[in-house]
Amino acid sequence: MIGRLNHIGVATPSIEASVALYRDMLGATSAGEPFDLPAQGVRVCFIDLPNAQIELIEPLGDDSPIHGFLAKNPKGGQHHVCFEVEDILGARDAMRAKGATLLGTGEPRIGAHGTPILFLHPKDMGGVLVELMETPKEAH
Ligand SMILES: CC[C@H](C(=O)O)C(=O)SCCNC(=O)CCNC(=O)[C@H](O)C(C)(C)COP(=O)(O)OP(=O)(O)OC[C@H]1O[C@@H](n2cnc3c(N)ncnc32)[C@H](O)[C@@H]1OP(=O)(O)O
Ligand SMILES: [Co+2]
């Protein structure tokens, strides 16, 4: 069911500091412009890699879903992995049937790439917060 790895989500207290870290330590120089996703409670910045992206995420607003993570991991850390799927609703129903816990209402929301996304609770996914993202149509 899952397709390519789209991105690795990395939570950080400072996107600016993390962009500098990835640039200076790892030579990752292709960071895009940061942008806010108020509906998702995060500020986002993508670092392009040859085969995927690093998604740097910073809390945005008091209700950000990553405040808890950063309280436990003040320097930030690997937060989630995002896999592409062809059909987000089909994937949702299949995961639900297999006993995965869908986060939020279970209805897809629009993510940082402008396509529908869902999250699966880490407790059912071997301790990994899994994001499913519908493959952008132009990618077909
Ligand atoms: C959407 C824009 C962008 C995109 O790609 O398009 C993004 O990806 S933004 C990403 C930020 N948004 C989300 O993460 C939404 C889904 N996340 C959540 O709903 C919460 O973060 C949740 C429920 C996973 C955790 O919430 P919280 O930290 O407040 O709850 P707890 O502290 O009670 O944690 C419960 C349990 O889960 C473990 N946990 C928490 N976060 C993670 C994580 N990132 N990876 C692995 N495990 C995680 C935590 O340690 C607790 O475990 P326990 O054994 O019960 O102590
Ligand atoms: Co993500």
UniProtKB/TrEMBL annotation:
Give the protein's recorded name.
Answer: Methylmalonyl-CoA epimerase
Which family does the UniProt entry place this protein in? Belongs to the methylmalonyl-CoA epimerase family.
Q: What is the lineage of its organism?
A: Bacteria, Pseudomonadati, Pseudomonadota, Alphaproteobacteria, Caulobacterales
The record's Gene3D superfamilies line, in alphabetical order, gives: 2,3-Dihydroxybiphenyl 1,2-Dioxygenase, domain 1 (3.10.180.10)
A molecular function annotated in GO for this UniProt entry is: methylmalonyl-CoA epimerase activity
Q: What is the protein's species of origin?
A: Brevundimonas staleyi
Q: Which InterPro entries match?
A: Glyas_Bleomycin-R_OHBP_Dase (IPR029068), MeMalonyl-CoA_epimerase (IPR017515), MMCE/EMCE_epimerase (IPR051785), VOC_core (IPR037523)
Record keyword Metal-binding present: yes
Question: What region holds the VOC domain?
Answer: 4-135
Question: Its Enzyme Commission number?
Answer: 5.1.99.1
